[in-house]
TrEMBL record:
Transmembrane segments: none annotated. Coiled coil: none annotated. This is SAM-dependent MTase RsmB/NOP-type domain-containing protein. The active site is at 520 (nucleophile). S-adenosyl-L-methionine binds at residues 398-404, 420, 448, 468. PROSITE patterns: SAM_MT_RSMB_NOP. Residues 283-609 form the SAM-dependent MTase RsmB/NOP-type domain. GO terms for molecular function: methyltransferase activity; RNA binding. InterPro entries: MeTrfase_RsmB-F_NOP2_cat, MeTrfase_RsmB-F_NOP2_dom, NusB-like_sf, NusB_RsmB_TIM44, RCMT, SAM-dependent_MTases_sf.
Length: 611
């Protein structure tokens, strides 16, 4: 049954959208395609028509009636931002005509920084986050549906980014979040009416444009006639109309549409068809699977609980503390084999309200991301026969936001120098260390790692370097869908990676010291990994390490680096990810059990030989 409300609104919509009435404009259904209002004249014509349409539908509870009530009953001062408003603001404020897609990468950050978002109730904040995350994750499919429904999508002109964000948020609700169509349409379109009251320097959105967005969302939420719904002889059974027209369009898209084609090709080429499929499924779940809620945290006890300590009490205490935290986080919190805690679905919302946040006992860090600090600590601990690490100095190169620095400090290193190029990110690093009460033994240096040298007066040995280079981050796509849309040009990153690796090996690390090179990339070069001396680094991980080792063999002026293979007992749960070189190569979706969803990562551990 179609409700009286939808019958009335559909009636008004169809009335408004008769193709014969206005040709150049818009909001017309032309073989299921809705056109965007373009010229000023068209808008003026449509305004006139709007008066006609609005008066015709006056008595039938059309949202316009509600809009008029809204305008008469509310003054500018008592209009409050809604979850949908802040989500649309976050998605539209960064978009430029050229960089519509890339700008979405920062939408979640813009949302968190928006004080109108901060003022929302926790439930509304959670909904706003879900809306932004769904658009970010399903962008390719959402735009695919809109392109099939709207002529000349994306919209152009002064309000283009606002209209586009509104359409995307509407489609996300209708097709991925199962929001009832009334709320998805009406409450989303309402944002266009209040936008100028809540946003600085913005003008009212012309009514025809609002009606255009309304028309598109209404069209997508029209019940579709599915095959089963049409009985023998073509008789329709209305009670079986469960899918929307938008769902029919969604079926013409694929979860792969949210991933850049070059990446899909590369995964298949680098890892073969079956592993590429597992990666894709992990990165981009099926249509009816909302945004993955997986969050792993590392605690101050995670790493020490795995270390063979000479003091059995320390070991037991760490283990006991971990188990206590597991209880605090709820029954569905899992202790992962390498010591991370995976938060269950019972703990949601603002993480600053979770148990232990303000005590500084834990930080968010993916399980895979804990491994570089773990294998560095293991190697240095083993070389000292398990004695404590308080006399050792290590450098965390490329340190912010500080997950690995915090691990190294928790492990008990006497001195940790954290080097970070970005001022903004290093402020976050300092804040994080301070919340975790770990600042004391840490020296934070803001600057390019290529210029860092331990102070000359410092005659101490530098025992280890953790080099977590900036990279394509393609292994983190399950949590950061923006990386799945990035460009294939990695030239600059490759250069920085190589320069930093060479500088660490040649100029900073002491002989006998350990260098751990890590990336969260899942790109690899296909050529064989034999020692080819004139190899150019074409990729971020295996290839860079191969080259670093090769240059030392080729020229005695360069540091001579050798692999210190990672042993299965050092990385519980990740044993099968150790490759033939003794390096860790983690691919999302490929490991068994709970670690199946761990981020993609690469970790190689090298030792600097005496010259
Ligand atoms: C992969 S992130 C590091 C994540 C960090 N290790 C952690 O676990 O929290 C790479 C970092 O390197 C920084 N970076 C980029 N180029 C750099 C350079 N030349 N020197 C030092 N840091 C750099 C980036 O700003 C970014 O914060």
């Amino acid at each position: 049954m179609i409700s009286p409300y939808s019958a009335a609104t559909m009636g008004a919509f169809l009335l408004f959208s008769q193709p014969t009435r206005v040709k150049s404009f818009s909001c017309t259904i032309q073989s299921n395609i809705i056109a965007f209002p373009s010229s000023h004249a068209a808008i003026t014509r449509a305004r006139k028509r709007h008066v006609f349409a609005a008066s015709t539908i006056k008595d039938i509870s059309h949202p316009d009636a509600q809009k008029r009530r809204f305008h008469s009953s509310k003054t500018k001062d008592n209009i409050r931002p809604t979850a949908r408003f802040v989500a649309i603001a976050a998605l539209s404020s960064g978009s430029s005509k050229k960089e519509n897609v890339d700008s979405l990468a920062f939408a979640a950050r813009r949302l968190e920084q928006d004080e109108r978002y901060q003022r929302l109730e926790p439930r509304d904040r959670a909904f706003a986050r879900l809306l932004v995350a769904t658009v970010e994750r399903r962008l390719g499919q959402i735009d695919g549906v809109l392109k099939r429904c709207v002529d000349k999508y994306p919209p152009k002109g002064k309000h283009a980014s606002l209209l586009q964000a509104t359409l995307r948020i509407g489609v996300a609700q209708l097709l991925f979040l199962n929001t009832p169509p009334f709320a998805a349409n009406h409450d989303t379109v309402q944002v266009l009416r209040i936008n100028h009251c809540l946003s600085k320097n913005s003008f009212p959105v012309p009514e025809p444009m609002i009606r255009f967005v309304n028309g598109v969302l209404r069209k997508l939420s029209t019940p579709a006639v599915s095959e089963e719904a049409v009985g023998v002889g073509g008789n329709e059974d209305n009670s079986k109309h469960t899918t929307l027209y938008g769902h029919e369009l969604l079926k013409q898209t694929s979860p792969d549409d949210n991933i850049a084609p070059w990446l899909l090709e590369r995964w298949e080429r680098d890892w073969g068809e079956s592993r590429a499929r597992l990666i894709r499924e992990e990165m981009m779940p099926s249509n009816n699977n909302p945004v993955s809620p997986r969050i792993d945290v590392t605690t101050k006890y995670s790493l020490t609980s795995l270390m063979e300590s000479s003091n059995p009490n320390t070991h037991q205490n760490s283990r006991a503390m971990l188990e206590k935290m597991q209880q605090d986080f709820g029954d569905d919190c899992i202790l992962l084999p390498q010591g991370s805690l995976r938060i269950g679905s019972s703990l949601t919302g603002d993480i600053t309200q979770w148990p232990g946040y303000h005590d500084g006992t834990w930080w968010v860090q993916d399980a895979s991301s804990t491994l570089p600090a773990l294998v560095l600590t293991r190697a240095l601990s083993n070389s000292r026969d398990g004695e404590d690490l308080s006399s050792l100095h290590v450098v965390d190169m490329c340190a912010a936001p500080g997950g690995k620095t915090s691990q190294l400090l928790s492990a008990g290193f006497g001195r940790v120098t954290a080097v970070e190029a970005s001022e903004r990110r290093s402020r976050r690093l300092v804040e994080n260390l301070s919340r975790l009460n770990l600042s004391e033994r840490c020296h934070v240096i803001v600057g390019d790692g290529q210029n860092y040298r331990p102070p000359e007066r410092d005659d101490q040995i530098l025992h280890g370097i953790l080099l977590d280079v900036p990279c394509s981050a393609t292994g983190t796509g399950a949590r950061r869908p923006d990386v799945l849309r990035r460009s294939s040009d990695l030239k600059e990153l490759l250069q920085i990676q190589e320069l930093l690796a060479n500088h660490c090996a040649d100029n900073i690390l002491s002989e006998g010291g350990i260098l751990v090179y890590a990336t969260c990339s899942i790109l690899k070069v296909v050529t064989s990994l034999t020692w080819v001396y004139d190899l150019d680094a074409k990729e971020e991980s295996e290839d860079q390490v191969t080259k670093l080792i090769a240059r030392g063999k080729q020229n005695s002026k360069h540091a001579s680096m050798t692999t210190l293979p990672i042993h299965p007992s050092e990385v519980p749960g990740f044993e099968s990810a150790i490759d033939e070189n003794g390096w860790l190569r983690i691919l999302p979706g490929v490991l068994e059990g709970d670690l199946r969803s761990a981020d993609g990562f690469f970790v190689a551990r090298l030792i600097k030989e005496d010259s």
